[in-house]
Amino acid sequence: MDYTTLISAHQLQALLEADQPVLVFDCSFDLTHPLAGDQQFADAHIPGAVRADLDRHLSAKGDPQAASGGRHPLPARQTFAQWLGSVGLSNAMQAVVYDRQGVNYCGRLWWMLKWLGHERAAVLDGGMPAWYAAGGVVTSGAATVHPAQDFALQAERATLVSAQQVHARLADPGQCLIDARAQPRYRGEVEPLDPVAGHIPGALNRPFGTNIGDDGLFKPAIVLKSELLELLDGRDPASVVHHCGSGVSAVPNILAMEIAGMGRPALFAGSWSEWCSDPARPVARG
User: Fold this and answer.
1) What are the beta bridge partners of residue 95?
2) In the prediction, which pLDDT does 1 show?
3) Averaged over 223-242, what is the pLDDT?
4) Same structural domain for residues 111 and 49?
5) Is 140 domain-assigned?
6) Residues 184-196, buried b or exposed e (16+ Cβ, 10 A)?
7) What is the DSSP code string of the chain?
8) Where in the sequence is the domain holding 78, given as residue range(s)?
9) Are 121 and 164 members of one domain?
């Protein structure tokens, strides 16, 4: 069985115990303390997990070949495919991603795998806390070194949208922007990371943590669908473009829509950090 959205801790345990072809990625990270994820991994991680760091592996800062702008630009597809193969992922394997921050960071890798055409990618529902709660075994120290594999690019299965495309369609009712940042940042009351506060005109707001229930797991599909339809208020789910500060925390909203059976909407990966870098682009507040 292939897992393409979520996988539970017990389901992952069963895969690992059955020695199925699966590769686990630990994406733990902290924007304010970039080395914290490495320390968390060294302290405890799922046996066999590969370290996937937002800054080092899932972004291409300063790379002229980057596929997007913003604070965390996407690496080129071929470049990232080569990295995946080098750490042991093949096209035939199930990929499972997790973090300790409510899917804030591992969702990035889930989306990137879809973008490279790899459908066998799932988020560990509840992350590391759920793994502990299920009695999952952990180990410490350095990451396991897996034999390199041939990971070949496939047709894109996730849609990447540029700042230029978003700007060109600002007045188009066929584009519905959803901003995943916390409400104070969306309203422009505070901005701890970027030089300009506010949001893209017309964007709706759904903070990414809204998708997670009190138990730390994604809310049931029926609940997510109800909430998302209320937010869209008649807008076509296929018109949605998700974004956030730098294209990372927007992904839980994409995943939530897919869990809810509403398709896989587009991602503006450059997000607010790219948008506000050009003073010619309009800014809304409130």
Assistant:
1) 23, 121
2) 84
3) 98
4) yes
5) no
6) ebbbeeebeebeb
7) ---SSEE-HHHHHHHHHTT-SEEEEE----TTSTTHHHHHHHH-B-TTPEE--TTTTS--TT-TT-SS-SSSPPPPHHHHHHHHHHTT--TTSEEEEE-SSTTTTHHHHHHHHHHTT---EEEETTHHHHHHHTT---B-SSPP-PPP---------S-EE-HHHHHHTTT-TT-EEEE-S-HHHHHTS--SSSSS-SB-TT-EE--GGGGB-TTSSBPPHHHHHHHHHHHHTT--GGGEEEE-SSSSTTHHHHHHHHHTTS---EEETTHHHHHTTSTTS--B--
8) 6-133
9) no
Q: Is the CA virtual torsion 178, 184, 189, 193 positive or negative? A: negative
Active site residue 244: yes
Over residues 161-178, the pLDDT tens digits come to 999 999 999 999 999 999
Give the integer Cα–Cα distance in Å for 122 and 98.
Answer: 9
The CB-based long-range contact list for 107-110 (8 Å cut-off, 24+ gap) reads 107/248, 107/249, 107/251, 107/252, 107/254, 107/255, 108/27, 108/54, 108/58, 108/72, 108/247, 108/248, 108/251, 109/25, 109/27, 109/52, 109/58, 110/251, 110/255
Assess contact for 72 and 54: CB atoms under 8 A: yes
Residues 99 and 45 in one domain: yes
Q: Are 98 and 105 in contact (CB under 8 A)?
A: no
Say how many domains are in the chain: 2
In this structure, the answer to whether residues 82 and 178 fall within a common structural domain is no
Same domain for 184 and 116: no
Q: What is the pLDDT of residues 112-163, one digit of tens each?
A: 999 999 999 999 999 999 999 999 999 999 999 999 999 999 999 999 999 9
State residue 257's pLDDT score: 98
pLDDT number for residue 102: 94
Q: Which is catalytic among the residues 106, 176, 244, 276?
A: 244
* pTM for the full predicted model: 0.97
